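Re-run with default settings, no changes from the original entry. Doing this only to confirm the output is reproducible before filing.
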Amino acid sequence: MQIEPRHLMQVAAIVDAGSFAGAAARLGSSQPAISRDITALEARLGIPLFDRSVRPVEATALGEALAEEGSAILFARDQAALKIERMRAGTAGVLRIMGPPLVMDHVVTPMFASFHAKHPAVEIHMQPGYVSEAMALVRTRKVDLALCAVTDIEEEGIDFLPLISSRNVIACRLNHPLTRVPDLQLSAIRDYGWVSPPRDSPLERDLRASLARLGGTTASIRFRSGTSAGIRTYLETTDCLSILPESVTHTMSKHHDVTSLQLDLPGPSRYVGILKRGDVPETRLAARMRAHLEKSFETLAVELEREIPQFRDRTVVAQT
């Protein structure tokens, strides 16, 4: 014999509340309506579900058994309502975010963690990628937001919200011999090997350009790695150098034996910023994450300014 889910929920609510009126209040119904439904169900089953002669009403053995099943339905209903409420408020759901591996691993992941501490019902899917791929995935709505380091973007339907200026630095281990050289000059780094950033990345192109300016060649590269952990570990354990974004080196230095040389490295002027669709409404969850990243990068810009005050104007006011 089949029983409608709403009847199971009614039985469970009566058991929980100890009365038909209490069950009606929980279910958004009325006491007479629930009483009629339960009376009709008992008549169809031929077995009483409640002893109405006592207060609070008591469930029979069958009533208790059906209440267990109804409780599971009630719980699922309440959880569904909670998820709907959170998603409408932008505090739950799935966010798909893309960005350059080194920046995402060392700079942005801690920002995701602080966001999750405030909104534990959010699931974040992070994937590595550079600007051309990010543009395509943002346009086709396969990612919600993308971070990238660019000089400028003018694409119809795509908004670029600058967060912070992206300056490259020469990274090395904490006690590298060059960190003890007074009045360090660029010529002093020619005798050292290099750790290459991921192949075909903007950073690798910057490294090649820098080596060319310094009179070096690709033969100066001692280690290649497609992972941030590989680059960091090689820097910590050798005298090799690498070219990394200042924000990455700064964040690495908080937890690892990595620092940067106080040299003004020539290179292209880029901004790290957020790519998003500009021609479709932003979800509340994506807007909440965007605001969180904007605030987090503002804090990072202040930290970098304090660390190396001679490099100014690195902060960009995000367009909200």
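The first helix runs from residue 5 to 17. The chain is about 45% helix and 20% strand.
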